[in-house]
Amino acid sequence: MLDFTKIISGVAGQRDTFEELVCQVARRVPPPGYAEFRRIHGAGGDGGVEAVWILTTGDEHGYQAKFYTKSGDVDWSAIDNSVATALATHPRLTTMIIAIACALTGRTQRVTKKGQPQANGWDAWDQHKARWEASAKALGRNVAFVPWTAPDLEEMLTRVETTGLTAYWFGGIELSPEWLARQCQRTVAALEERYHPEDHVDVSTSQVFDGLLRNLPFRTMLRRAREDVLENGRLGATPESLLDAEKQKLTTIAEKIRKFDEATAILELNTDSAFDYTNWRDQAVDLRKRVFEVIQAVNEIARAAKAKRPSTSGPHMVDEDREWPSVDYFIEALRKLQSSLGQFLEAVDSPGSLSDQCRFALLDGRAGSGKSHLIASQVERALGENAPALFLLGTDFTLHGTIENQMIAHFELGGSKFDQFLGALNARAEALGKRALIAIDAVNEGAGVQLWRSALQGLAQRILAYPRLALCVSCRREYVDHLVTPAVNAIATRAEVTGFETPEEIEAAARVYMDRRGIVRPATPWLNPEFSNPLFLRTACLAIERDGRTTFPRGMRGTSEVLNFLLDSTGRHLGTSYDGADTLVGPVRRALLALAGAMASDQRDYITRGRAHTLVEAVFQGFAPPPSKTWLELLRFRGLLRYDPNPAHDPADPLSDQDDVLRISFQRFQDHLVANALLQHVADPAGLFDAGGSLSFVLGKHGVQWEWRGLFYALFLHFADRYQVELVDLLPGGADAWWDQWPVQDAYIDSIRWRTVGAFSDRTLELLNRLDCHDENIIALLIELAVVENHPWNAELLDRNLACRKLPHRDAFWTRRINTAHNDAGHPLTRLINWCLNLGIGRAEDGTLGLALVLLAWACTSSSANVRDTASKAMIHIFLERPALIEPLFIRFATCDDPYVVERLFGALYGASLRTPDPARLAGYAITAWRHAFGCGQPPVHILTRDYARGVIELSASAGGLDPSIDLVRCRPPYGTKAPAFNLTEAKVEARAKRVGADSILRSCYKGLADFGRYTLQYRVERFAAAPLKGPRPLTSAETGQAFLEDVSRGRPDIAKAFEALRDAHRLKRISFDADTFKMTVPASDRKRIEVAEETLLALLTATQARRYASDAKRWAANETDHAWIMPGKGLGKQVDAHRAKLWVANRAIALGWTEAIFPRDHTSGEGQGDRGRVERIGKKYQRIAMMELLARLADNNWLKPDWGSLAKTYSDPLDVEFIRDIEPSVLPGDNEMRPAAGMPDVPLLRCPDLAAGEREAWVLDPELAPQRLALALGADLGSGDWLTLYRYASHDVEAPRRKGSWDVSWEQSDFHFIAMLLMPPRTRERFVEETEKHRDDFHEWLPGNVTDGPYIGELGRRATWRSDPWSTLDARGRNTDRSYGVIKPTIGYQWESHLDESLGNGFSRQVPIPWLITALGLRPDIENVGVYADSQGLPIIVSGRDDRHSYILVRRAALLAMARRNEVEPVWTVIGERSARTEGNKRTSDVRVRYNGSLWLDADIAVLRHWSRSD
């Protein structure tokens, strides 16, 4: 009989483990009609039961466990409480099972001292059961109460369904964390060189293990994908203009999203139930299809309606202008929903989801790809996350005995049966709420095929019969077909381990393998594929480290160089007594050459192990190998050789040789060595492929033999390097007979990557131009070679080719090809750009970086903002690193005819200037800007290009180092370009467009939808008045009206009085709005009063004065001063005619050379925010060029019109024409990460304590909340009093579980606050603190303002693009109060949006000091940390940082207070915050909330504070 006192003990003792045992038994012994099992954790289950079975009827069977090991110790009152709670909280409860860890005693003859029968367990049960049943009946329910006593449990534990539970829960099989860790370390130790945790790099294949374990990262990935669908599924109000059919489709979509929500709600639970991936996929696919159909339909409606609008720029109906932007926004919302559904489908079909469904993963990969390391690291990670995991190797198994029995023996489990072991492991995982992993690495080793092919399926099925178990098996790629049956493939998820694939993985590998060892990264992008192989990379890095070196050999490229390096390094560090010397370098090299020679003579790509052993031992004769190893085994152990299955083995022949064969680990090196052996004594390669020739075996009847393709590729390379000929020319029948075959062209392309620089000829180039592959592939190949110094096909070749082409032909040949790099992390151009943005370029040679700059400049032709912006940032980075390369680059591109390129060259120069404080370096930049923009004649006719150049020169001037030869006046506008002639007609432009097929340009500029003309061009040109600079300045109606009144009323008080009476009549008029006619109406009496007043005035004026009144003063008299202006003597002014501007831009875009013949199928592609997030058509590029030219001409020749209170003025900088800046050159992609510096404070995050519902109200209403927040103004949480807050924002929420069927996510708790400093004179401070408290002001409207997409952050404090006046007026308007305060807000919010700089994926934002504060404190920006400002000694005085819910800017206390005293101002801090919570679980929103405000100031350095709050 089981002794329950022997049950293992959990964290809370044996009571805890007994409860879990009962729940596991209950799960395995379900009641009839069961549907869903739910484990309920908490004291007493928080509901009277530990678990429930929900039946198909909706009724429940509940389970309560009580750990009493003696009948007399049972506390029946405790059971009574549990029953009462269960009845109250589970209204559908029909059966309650109460498990007790003892046998209840029955009646005996024994009596008490009073003669009463002695109490016994079963009588007590019957008595209490009767009470429980009565309680249930009182509630109108019939509930059965069933006991599970120790004998009952013991019987159930003998059933098949509960196999393994007894073994685990009563200690028969140990599966403690310590035991599991010991087993893992035992296996890890056996891996030797295959696993080094210190060299771990996360790779994408690890997702497979996330799914196998169904761990938190995996569940989070699915939850986020689901939440994005639900979030984007809230489309908002439907535009009224949509047809009923579309509205019905949207209703259907909304209903299907609700069903999707219900179907996927299980993702919010931590459950081991199977996910219904098929249903989720079907629903998401159906939804995505429906959303796509609606997008198409709404787009068609929008196009049709917009096409009916007049093509002129005249007025439109108000409701029309309001409606169609809302339709556009609605379409964008639909696209977001479509995108999120696509991402959900990707998540459902991800490797993690596939492995979650199967719970069985089969990993394969080439030798050295990192399979063993991956599995070992994932097993250790699982154990670290408290998930049970077991790790074994293929070498742990032999042909003696079954796999199952050998596993039992390996883990020393004695007489345990395999199913008991699996059941115990399953029970352990279930108790932890985890899955358990069994991982077996390298099943191709050890017993190999003979054991696993017949047994793997059965093993997998036995393991997968337990729902909490998962299995992972790895196998070398070469053995998969021999070892894995179709039946195994059908039940497993296959995943290939390929090493370091993505740029992110390669970057991480560089950090782990090189940076940590102090090894300098190669000074060019990694072109050699072997660098993606973990075994090769680690071997090479270890060799460099052991040699005491810090760099890779310079110029190492090509197979020979890489192989020689690897062999030399390995030979010096084999792990023998000869290590550190070159003694074994020769034998290692000769051993591999001997093996390759044998393969060549046998015409096989392998060698038998026996022969290999003989050859290697002969080479090493005279050298003593390490103990217990042969030289062959040592070379294999060091990663140079590998064992493979024998390709000659015939499974049908029992006498066939089954022994493994040997190959060189890296196939490319083996092919190279074999090719070298085959050509060892060949002086003339002619005839080698002819019949009977030594290489004829490589060719077959239909081309290159499949099994010899790798060798053929190596031979192509050797023919070029050794003989300076192209192999294809020496094939039988000549090049024409073979060139069209794909393997031949591919071998040629592969050889290009690996050739030495002397192996390129005119014939090589001729073959390049004959390639059949897509042109973008050829361009990509040339980009790979672009930065190789002294290479005949580097960037110099591209530059010569591109420079001689005209703009349209260059765009057709080059730009459209490099556009394929758009958002493609693996494209060679993207890889080059990322390398140039890496800090490691500081170690590169000038020649390498110079070539990179040439390619980056030409990359700026791209119509992909992503490519163009990232290439520009890469140029900035190189400019900063090597300023000497700037002038040669500008000289090279001096005659470039592509304004896209020229603009970004100057933009990069300006970006480098904005990140450079050094006056000497700025002076050099300025000379380049002067020479190439202003000193050579007409400045570029591009509104951004010339401002970049001007900015460079002005920064140098402000730094005090400007060269005297530079004429600063010529660097400032206006620049004297010719004014645009708006004399084109639609007919003329359309006739020109028809000739070249440019209707798409017309449709974009002014015909039909005209999206570019309407949304990009029109509002920009309308910033200019139709008034030439050479004429008088346009005046506002207030200016002309006041001038008129002054003139006519001089000495005529009667006219002044009449004029004022007229203005009063206008002020008193009552205006109403007619919503039907969209017209303003004025009552007749008011109109009459105005007419009389005007007649009175006119009667006093002369005829000339009356005419002047009509043109100059009538609008001002009527108080119509808003957005209008007057041309003196001409009446109401006009802005530039937008329609004529659209015609001009369309005509100019066509004149740049766009034709349909050159650019067929020219269209926008990709997804993103607006056109800049996609690859724009080339025609749109030319439209943008034309627009920038037009704006430059207008800026030189026209007045900027008055604008809402501002006067007309001449153009100064691009901020005068909003949103034409399309990159932030002073911010690099890595600037979002703050680099730690000495003395910078660590600012804690705000975190809400996760409180029980009953504790939340007190937390919200904490009376110390406002004082605590105000204390942050003085840095109370920063560990010292050295810092003061200029601005701080923080927020945090404790999210409530998403309820089934509910789209919104409420918060259990929420907390946020803003703290902002104000500077004000002492008298203002006194009034401010008194009055704001008295009126209980809310400070939200007085928080610092923001600038978005305007001035650059690098211009802050250095250029006049930022507002210089520090003073602001805080106005308080309300009942019985009309107050204002003059203050300085010392900070401002800066934001640059990602759609105006695609290199900044999430944009960039900081709270920054205003220019006045920077100047007052005498600071300059810290170039290494954007948003940090230091004094002349480099000490950070102002620091800032942010993330999504946390933003701060701090200043050193001493510096700020000293500056305030000098400027006779005092700091006052304001706080505004809110805290809320939900105290009742059935409420959807918070039910207790407090909003507080307060102020703090210093009185003789003592903090004084006041605060007030409002709660509800």
Query: Widest sheet: strand order?
Result: 30-31-32-33-23-24-34-35-36
Q: Give the C-alpha Rg.
A: 40 Å
Number of helices: 53
Q: Pairing-aware structural class of the strands and helices?
A: alpha+beta
- DSSP strand content: 5-15%
Mean pLDDT value: 88
Helical fraction equals 40-55%
Low-confidence stretches: 309-325
Q: Tell how many strands the DSSP assignment holds.
A: 36
Distance between the termini: 62 Å
Largest sheet: 9 strands, antiparallel
Shape: globular
Organism: Shinella yambaruensis
Protein name: ATP-binding protein
Give the secondary structure arrangement, pairings included.
Blueprint: H1 14-28, E1 34-39, E2 51-55, E3 60-66, H2 76-89, E4 93-100, H3 121-138, E5 144-148, H4 150-156, H5 165-169, H6 177-191, H7 207-213, H8 216-232, H9 244-264, H10 277-307, H11 318-348, H12 351-358, E6 360-365, H13 371-384, E7 389-393, H14 403-410, H15 418-432, E8 436-441, H16 449-464, E9 469-476, H17 480-483, H18 486-491, E10 493-496, H19 503-514, H20 534-546, H21 558-572, H22 585-602, E11 607-608, H23 609-619, H24 631-637, E12 641-644, E13 661-664, H25 667-678, E14 699-700, E15 703-704, H26 709-723, H27 735-738, H28 742-754, H29 762-769, H30 775-785, H31 795-803, H32 807-818, H33 828-836, H34 846-859, H35 865-881, H36 886-892, H37 899-914, H38 919-934, H39 945-959, H40 986-996, H41 999-1005, H42 1011-1021, E16 1024-1028, E17 1035-1036, H43 1037-1049, H44 1053-1067, E18 1072-1074, E19 1079-1081, H45 1084-1100, H46 1103-1117, E20 1125-1127, E21 1131-1132, H47 1138-1151, H48 1178-1197, E22 1198-1200, H49 1256-1260, H50 1265-1271, E23 1283-1295, E24 1307-1320, H51 1322-1334, E25 1346-1348, E26 1367-1374, E27 1377-1384, E28 1387-1392, E29 1404-1409, ...
Parallel strand pairs: 3-4, 4-5, 6-9, 6-10, 7-8, 8-9, 25-28
Antiparallel strand pairs: 1-2, 2-3, 11-13, 12-13, 14-15, 16-22, 17-20, 18-19, 20-21, 23-24, 23-33, 24-34, 26-27, 28-29, 30-31, 31-32, 32-33, 34-35, 35-36
